[in-house]
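seq:
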Amino acid sequence: MLSKTLISAAIAASLALVPATQAAADKKDFIAGAILGGIGGAIINNEVRKNKQRQAARQRAVAPRTTYAAKPRTYRAPAKKTYRPSIPATTEGREIQSSLNYFGFDAGSIDGRVGSKTRDAISDYQRYMGYQGTGQLTTFQQHLLTSSYLRAEAGGNQTFQDIASHPDGTRGLLKLYREDLASGGSQQRELRPEPSVAPSAAYTDL
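struct:
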């Protein structure tokens, strides 16, 4: 009887231990599966990300490059050079330039070409003498200028005395000689215009 009881107890105990052992084993399997699943998921996600990066790189590699059409080159004809006609050199121009330079009105080089520099010097001469500075000499203004220059060059010591006595120096000779002309002095004949010029045209600026 006792032996039956002990055998029954052992069988019951073994039956009770089976579910507990199975439950413990299932728990371990779950933990291991979770760990393996996490590792496997991370590996899969990493591979998916790498695949996307490789696909994006391929797309960039095969993407058509933006090309810019070259602008058409336009031919420009060279600008035409314009040539100003050269101012003719004349003996009269040299006389005017020499006279202006002598009296301190800078006409530049004596080349006989009455250009802008000579015109500026003529204007200075005209304003000094009380005329309008137009840069264009009247007949009388030109004759007074050139004749005064010739007279001063031929005057010798008298010219130096006249220059020293006048506050304007060499330029003052122009006013002295014009006064001689206006007063009818002995020098009037030297300053008289050429016969071809009418007296009324020559002395209009007095």
